[in-house]
Write a structure and sequence with these properties.
The complex is a heterodimer. In chain A, α15 links the parallel β7 and β8. In chain A, α1 packs across α2 and α10 runs antiparallel to α13. By secondary structure, chain A is an alpha/beta fold. Chain A is about 55% helix and about 10% strand. In chain B, about 55% of the residues lie in helices and about 15% in strands. Chain B contains 13 helices and 10 strands. Chain B is elongated. The chains are: A alpha/beta, B alpha/beta.
């Protein structure tokens, strides 16, 4: 028996795949295709995604903004060749919903939960605090992974400009929730010993600035938010600290970066590789998406492809087609060069592979399956 | 497309890879050639982030205060901190308080870590630039053109006022947001333009973006379809090549089929978007030549661009 190809190894044996990448590279498509590959191997798979496009929900036949994961419909499972014990659930997770669950878990009593749910600042918090979406995605990931209902959870990380946003998320949230910001809004003099004259004077200045900037009403909301929910926020902050560490088991977890042939892809790949190493996270490899790197059996449109009795229109048309062919060949060269650079960046322990371009994009189930098959059989560069 | 130049501000959005920045630069060049004083802007860290727009005019980075890039074209990096600083200056009566506010690390952190407050800084920076005057009653720039980094940012900006007002319904921040809405969410003075390519997926994404923006009050002026290639295959040639292309994968087939899809994509955009659709051609040029060539196309009556 031959050894598994890289994607086969991942979807057969890991418990968690974290798919990262900058916005617009096809991260959601890749995650879904991976989830299908896992389910077709008989595994119980959950695909988690934050704020996905309507198109993907339609392709899978599931609703967005549900309270819990749902199975994709029977007939689509059949179409995709997924049979029991294999299953495929999807959840387009809503960060606010996850936040509510976390609060319910951490709050001391129902009244505290109730008050927090009513606070205007809390209600805007998943969009207001940087890193909150990423943190909540991790919360959901652990919740489902640890419950044991799924063999494989695939996380399509929240959309962002930058491929590293997911890794930095908890830290960014944590810097928002740190002590200094608490002090900014806590009624002066609360928390510990009576402050000295200087601190009190500084506090009064900050107080004046806050009132001028936020206005009385919002400042009151902010004070209530930070004051009453200090404990919950401190808990969140502590959790954020070790969140990333829980993703460091190389037998269980794999991180991969999806990228596309743009100017930024090489530097993105480099920083991602470096950052995962620094954070001691199991990096699996790069997927070069939407590229021309694969020849996919293409040949140059030479005249001998035409029959001997080819019409004049076929001959003149072919001359024009050849011009386009040369352009595509040079694009292939360019993308192959890029793939080679990514492979070098990946090193011996990780992979770099390319997925084929699906004409018209992956906007229906058959094209998703095509990508899934291609990933399954993809040879590392 | 020249009708766009009568606005005070244009917000250019579109997915990565569609040539949005190039089109933004070409629009600015065309407006300048039509006699407008133009300020182009991107969002990021001044003097630090690689300025994609600046690069097209030979500058690697851009500062947070406008600098000349070409005749009648200035460039600036929109920066949340600049907006915050100007906002503090507006709301705080005493310079010493402004300095204290700017020095407060905690306040700094809050403004940086809360994306809405961060975007609000950029929004306020935009607003102060539109309001800047050369002399009393005469704006310094006729037209501000902003290159929005990604679709997410476009929607982020489109939903920003309502998000902020939900969170902070009263006080100076709310007043400022309402002022900004009067300028940027008012079809007499401002509009969003979506850049896309004549291909299936980019068209779908452009339509999704427009649908999203339509749920807000941000006006959409139209869609610019970039890299529209002329179809130089005759009907007979197309028919004669069809079996060859269907039979086996050949180099050039993707483009050949793509060219055939161009008019279909344009029709789909026209029907589904219910807004104006403009075309700009794919040109075999790079750098300043490309910008100039595209600005020619923008200034030409649309019918001539088509062929």
């Amino acid at each position: 028996m031959s050894a598994d190809l890289p994607i086969q190894e991942l979807v057969k044996h890991r418990g968690v795949l974290v798919v990262c990448g900058a916005g617009g590279v096809g991260k959601t498509t890749t995650s879904t295709a991976l989830a299908m590959a896992g389910a077709r191997q008989g595994r119980r798979v959950l695909a988690l995604t934050v704020d996905p496009s309507k198109r993907l929900a339609q392709t899978l036949g599931v609703d967005r903004n549900l309270e819990a994961p749902v199975s994709i419909p029977e007939e689509r499972l059949r179409q995709a060749g997924i049979e029991p014990p294999g299953s495929l659930h999807a959840w387009m997770l809503d960060p606010k919903l996850v936040a509510d669950r976390v609060v319910q878990k951490m709050a001391k009593d129902p009244e505290e939960v109730e008050r927090l749910m009513q606070n205007r600042i809390y209600n805007g918090i998943s969009r207001m605090v940087a890193g909150m979406q990423e943190y909540m995605a991790m919360e959901a990931l652990f919740e489902f992974h640890e419950a044991g209902t799924y063999d494989l959870v695939i996380l399509d990380t929240p959309p962002s400009r930058n491929a590293l946003a997911f890794l930095e998320g908890p830290q960014r949230m944590s810097s928002f929730l740190d002590g200094r910001i608490f002090h900014l809004f806590l009624p002066q003099g609360s928390g510990g010993a009576r402050p000295g004259l200087f601190r009190r004077a500084a506090g009064a200045v900050i107080d004046t600035i806050n009132r001028a900037v936020f206005g009385e009403e919002t400042y009151d909301d902010l004070q209530e938010f930070f004051g009453s929910f200090r404990d919950i926020l401190a808990n969140l902050n502590t959790n954020a600290g070790d969140m990333i560490e829980r993703l460091s088991d190389p037998d269980d977890v794999a991180f991969m970066l999806v990228t596309s042939p743009t100017d930024a892809s090489v530097s993105d790949a480099h920083f991602f590789r470096e950052r995962t190493a620094q954070m001691n996270l199991p990096f699996a490899g790069f997927v070069l998406n939407r590229s021309q790197a694969l020849a996919s059996g293409r040949v140059f449109p030479d005249y001998d492809l035409l029959p001997d009795d080819a019409s004049p229109a076929a001959l003149s048309g072919l001359a024009k087609l050849q011009k386009l062919g040369k352009v595509e060949q040079s694009e292939m060269e360019r993308d192959r060069h890029l793939l080679a650079t990514l492979a070098e960046e990946a090193g011996d322990e990780a992979f770099a592979l390319a997925t084929p371009t699906v004409p018209g994009g992956a906007n229906d189930l058959p094209s998703l399956l095509k990508i899934s098959d291609a990933l399954w059989g993809a040879e590392p560069y | 497309m020249e009708s766009l130049f009568d606005k005070r501000a244009l917000l250019i959005s579109g997915k990565g890879g569609v040539g949005r920045t190039t089109v933004t630069a070409a629009l600015a060049m065309a407006a300048a050639r039509a006699g407008k004083r133009v300020l182009i802007a991107e969002i990021g860290e001044p003097d630090e982030d690689l300025a994609a727009l600046g690069r097209l005019f030979g500058r690697q980075t851009l500062p947070a205060d406008p600098v000349p890039l070409a005749r009648n074209v200035d460039g600036v990096m929109l920066w949340s901190r600049k907006g915050h600083e100007r906002f503090l200056r507006m709301v705080l009566p005493v310079a010493a308080l402004v300095r204290a506010g700017l020095r407060s690390k905690a306040l700094r952190r809050l403004l940086d870590a809360a994306p809405s407050l961060n975007e609000l800084g950029v929004f306020y920076h935009m607003l102060t630039l539109v309001r800047e005057e050369a002399s009393a009653g005469r704006p310094k720039w006729d037209l501000l053109i902003i290159d929005l980094p990604a679709t997410g940012h476009a929607l982020g900006l489109a939903t920003l006022p309502d998000r902020i007002l939900q969170l902070i319904p009263t006080g100076p921040i709310a007043r400022t947001v309402r002022d900004g809405k009067d300028v940027f969410f008012n079809e007499d003075s401002s509009a969003m333009v979506v850049v896309t390519l004549p291909e299936t997926l980019p068209v779908t994404e452009a339509l999704e973006l427009i649908e999203g923006v339509r749920e807000t009050d941000l006006p959409v002026a139209g869609i610019i379809v970039n890299k529209v290639v002329g179809d130089d295959f005759t009907e007979e040639e197309r028919e004669a090549l069809a079996p060859l292309v269907a039979e086996r994968p050949v180099f050039g087939a993707t483009r050949f089929l793509g060219i055939g899809m161009v008019s279909q994509s344009l029709d789909r955009l026209r029907e589904a978007s219910e807004t104006t659709v403009w075309k700009v051609p794919e040109l075999p040029l790079e750098g300043p030549g490309l910008i100039h060539g595209l600005s020619d196309a923008i200034l030409a009556p649309q019918d001539e661009v088509a062929s």
